[in-house]
What does this fold into?
Amino acid sequence: MGPDDMLDEALHGLARHARQTGRLTAVAEVRRRGDSRRRRRHLATAALGVALLGAVGAGVTVVHLAGPTRTTLPAAPNGTTPGPSAQSPSTGPTPNTAEPTSGSPSATPSATPSATPDAPKSSAPTDPLRLGGRRYVLLRPAAMESVVSLLDDGSLGEVDGDEGRRLFVFVPQGSGTYLVRTAEPNADGNRDCWQVRSAGSDPLTVVAAACSPDEPRQLFSIVVQGSEGGQRTYALSNNSAYLQYSDQRGLILEELGDAPLETVFRFVDNGAAPKQ
It folds into this structure.
């Protein structure tokens, strides 16, 4: 049965229904409804075709993606495989990572000898003031004619005459320290050295003692402090306590703290030191 036959059959059915219900739908309305149904069928058919085409395309894409994964980088225009992207150079030294040529023994780098051999390191002089080979008289520039003397009672003081032993040899012990030894022997024929003595609350003083290089109280530091009358002056100390002159106590040792150094000495050369 063709579409027109179906339409006629439908119209006859509607006529029968109108006769039964008392209402009749216009012929033009009936035709409009028939046209609408045909357009909907055509649109449905076209949509089904588009859906089928999309499904086929998706299947092709899935098949393409499921193919074998590429494991090599594409070749660059010059035929070589491109490396990693360039980065800013490092500011530090670049290590040498070159590998030895295949088939050749790996060479161990040897230190390149210096063109000029290293000079031997010179040690600090043991006698920076070069006092060790001479005997000296010590005097304070402000003491006029008085000189330093190790008195017969064993104490260190200043004298205007020839009391005690007034000539001293400064025996270097390294690191700028010295033993201060008498150039003249005592009554027993012994030469003594200066040694710091503590007396409780009283100031430190210097006394005569048997020379012992291992005794820290006998190691005196001597430094150039300045000059007076064209001659050098020196400061003498033991463990940061300086040899100073006191109007009440004579020669004592005291730490300066914030006080300025007021007592310095001149060394007057009196010839070669006696041999031991």
Notes: The first helix runs from residue 3 to 21.
